[in-house]
């Protein structure tokens, strides 16, 4: 794996991660037994906020169509969540009216369905009206054409704007007093452009590490790279009400 | 003025405005005398949230250099604030490393200094590290090259990401209990991607109409076109504190 071969957009965006160590507001006392939970540092959750640039997930079948019979995804860079990676492979995504995004990174491993995740800015530039959806909820979403070096695939659906979410393990859940499927809020303090993101869905898994995923529009709206503090909170401080 | 000649980006972005009639949270009783304040409807403030796509402001001198001796800006579409307009003219903005934005709309009237306002996504694509600044605060900001049909201009500074702000008149100020220079917060409720923008600067003027300006990244982060409610509030509800 040669990190110097990563293209600029990948370096800048896909794996651009704010390794900010926050002091997440706790709404429950951490269990003593959580000290060794995945991703914890010094016995505490270690919040990471990452920008997911546009990318796609592919089925095994589509990998072979796009990159040639017998092809498999090759890991180029591991993502923070164990077992997931940015692949060497990229595809062209073609929308209606002959607009396209020339190089969209494939993330691995493969999945039972193919899915393209765009920021809204990307989808406007591509001319596709991508709805905000959580990963895998692609029924009735628009399709597109994927073009690889060995072939192309017509997706009848699967183009979405990935809804913001936070991966966490069950020790993190206990720390924050939340459960899988709950909503949280994330405040990013950034000079002259602080933002509180509502609707941050909890996706709990025993192996997950605490990490919020937002897209490039969201990351740019709050200038994440310049952020001075990130705070993740359970929704319901009362501020949501007018 | 022929609106059919507007290019797609202008139609889609520059003048894309959420004409949402909100119920702004009042922190002061509106004065009876305010019933005829600019922009008020039925004796109340009528909040508008508008997305400002990338654009530039030019001096008279630069208009002549870029578009030819004797040239003046020609209004193509009036903006919501009286006296301001999107001009027919566009310029090419060239950054370092030969990257460029081919068609950036000029807004009128002319100003004592030229200034380019980009979303962060634009500035990344252009390769310019544009700081978040309020309009006119351009000391020490990066420059760029502007290219028009008749000539080019080297700006030594003036490329910014415009900080979010709200225009209002003094009746609006009284209604919200704020003054020129205060900060407010704007909550956009949008399916699966609600956002609260902090750091919304009050820019008060007797002739202004109540209008928040955010950029395309901010508008896309909350999918403004799909928003169901917008609420402008004085900062300080307590939610800012952890």
TrEMBL record, chains A, B:
Pathway note: Polyol metabolism; 1,2-propanediol degradation
Keywords in alphabetical order: Acyltransferase, Bacterial microcompartment, Metal-binding, Transferase, Zinc
E.C. number(s) listed in UniProt: 2.3.1.222
Cofactor(s) the protein needs: Zn(2+)
Domain of life of the source: Bacteria
GO terms under cellular component: bacterial microcompartment
GO biological process, one term: 1,2-propanediol catabolic process
Any matching Pfam family: PTAC
InterPro entries in the cross-refs: PTAC
Single GO molecular function: metal ion binding
Top-tier EC class: transferase
Compartments reported by the entry: Bacterial microcompartment
Catalytic activity as recorded in UniProt: propanoyl-CoA + phosphate = propanoyl phosphate + CoA
Entry-linked NCBIfam families: PRK15070.1 (NF011652)
Similarity comment text for this entry: Belongs to the PduL family.
Role according to the record: Involved in 1,2-propanediol (1,2-PD) degradation by catalyzing the conversion of propanoyl-CoA to propanoyl-phosphate.
This protein's name: Phosphate propanoyltransferase
């Amino acid at each position: 794996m040669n990190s110097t071969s990563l293209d600029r957009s990948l370096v800048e965006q896909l794996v651009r991660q704010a390794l900010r160590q926050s002091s997440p507001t706790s709404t429950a006392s951490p269990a003593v037994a959580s000290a060794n939970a995945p991703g914890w540092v010094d016995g505490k959750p270690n919040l990471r906020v990452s920008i997911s640039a546009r990318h796609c997930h592919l089925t095994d079948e589509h990998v072979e169509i796009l990159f040639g019979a017998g092809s498999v995804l090759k890991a180029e860079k591991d993502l923070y969540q164990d077992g997931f990676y940015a692949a060497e492979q990229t595809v062209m995504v073609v929308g209606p009216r002959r607009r396209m995004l020339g190089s969209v990174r494939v993330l691995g491993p493969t999945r039972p369905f193919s899915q393209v995740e765009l920021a809204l800015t990307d989808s406007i530039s591509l001319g596709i009206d991508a709805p905000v959806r959580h990963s895998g909820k692609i029924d009735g979403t628009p399709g597109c054409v994927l073009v690889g070096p060995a072939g192309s695939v017509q997706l009848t659906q699967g183009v979405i704007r990935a809804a913001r979410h936070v991966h966490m393990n069950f020790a993190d859940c206990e720390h924050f007093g939340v459960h899988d499927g709950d909503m949280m809020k994330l405040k990013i303090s950034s000079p002259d452009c602080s933002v509180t993101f509502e609707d941050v869905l909890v996706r709990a898994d025993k192996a997950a590490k605490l990490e919020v995923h937002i897209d490039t529009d969201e990351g740019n709206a709050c200038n994440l790279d310049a952020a001075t503090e990130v705070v993740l909170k359970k929704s319901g401080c009362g501020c949501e009400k007018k």
